[in-house]
Amino acid sequence: MKSSVEVQIAKERARIRLELGKLNLEAEPLAFHGTEYILFCYGATPAFIEESWTNLEITDSEKAPDSSPHVPMPLDKVFLPSPGGIKKNAILFSGQKVSLSDQ
Predict the structure, then answer these.
(1) Bridge partner list, 35
(2) Which secondary structure element, helix H or strand E, spans residue 11, and what is its range?
(3) pLDDT digit string, tens, across residues 7-55
(4) Which pTM was predicted?
């Protein structure tokens, strides 16, 4: 059974949710390969951000890759709760060329 202190902390804790958009893999030259995403902070209190970065890679492995560069994701140090969220972009870094097959 949780103590009343643990319940109060859980109630006040900031929560961050990420919603991914559609992955863009257009084969046009100089096209942006990646995805848009929205970060939401919800809960009773703001989140205090110490470090933030993105790493988007396509793989069929169950393990998260660590070969891609960690791209800084600029966020304010204090992330206030917001129903609309913050829109960001993540770029797909890959050692291989992205191409779409003829269907």
Answers:
(1) 23, 90
(2) helix 4-12
(3) 888 888 889 999 988 887 776 666 667 888 999 998 889 999 898 887 7
(4) 0.66
Count of beta carbons in the 10 Å neighbourhood of residue 33: 17
pLDDT in tens, 52-103: 887 777 777 787 666 666 777 888 899 999 889 999 888 876 544 444 444 3
Residue 78, Cβ neighbours under 10 Å: how many? 11
Q: Cβ(100)–Cβ(25) under 8 Å?
A: yes
Place of tokens 């070969």: 67
Separation of alpha carbons 19 and 10, rounded Å: 22
Residue 46 sits at the vertex; the CA angle it makes with 41 and 51, to the nearest 5 degrees, is: 80
Long-range contacts made by residues 95-98, C-beta under 8 angstroms, separation at least 24? 95/67, 98/25, 98/27, 98/33
Rounded Cα gap, residues 19 and 24, in angstroms: 15
